[in-house]
Design the sequence.
C-alpha cells in the first residue's frame, strides 16, 4: 500500500506525512540559527537583485519616453537635413 492512500480492503486512514521528510532544504529552518541564516540569505539575494531590477525598469521607462516624445526631435533633424541639402544645392 502506498503512503497517503487508503485501501478499500483495509479501511485504514492514510498515514500522516512526516513534515521533516517533505520539508525543502532550508538551511535548518527548525533552529533559530537556521532561521537567521535563511533571513541573511534572503537579504543578500535581495540586495544583489533589486538594483538590477530597478535599473532595468528605469531603462525601459527611458526607452518608452524616447519613443513617445522623440518624434518631434526626429522631425527637427529631418528639417535640418533638408535645409542643409538645399544649401548645398544652392552653393
Sequence:
Amino acid at each position: 500500500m502506498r503512503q497517503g492512500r487508503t485501501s478499500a480492503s483495509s479501511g485504514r486512514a492514510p498515514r500522516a506525512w512526516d513534515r521533516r521528510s517533505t520539508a525543502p532544504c532550508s538551511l535548518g529552518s527548525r533552529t533559530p540559527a537556521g532561521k537567521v541564516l535563511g533571513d541573511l540569505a534572503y537579504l543578500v539575494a535581495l540586495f544583489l537583485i533589486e538594483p538590477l531590477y530597478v535599473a532595468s525598469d528605469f531603462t525601459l521607462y527611458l526607452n518608452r519616453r524616447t519613443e513617445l516624445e522623440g518624434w518631434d526631435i526626429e522631425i527637427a533633424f529631418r528639417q535640418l537635413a533638408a535645409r542643409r541639402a538645399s544649401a548645398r544645392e544652392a552653393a
Summary: The chain is about 70% helix and 0% strand. The chain has a mean pLDDT of 79. Residues 5 and 14 are 5 Å apart (CA to CA). Helices lie at 19-22, 32-69, 71-90.
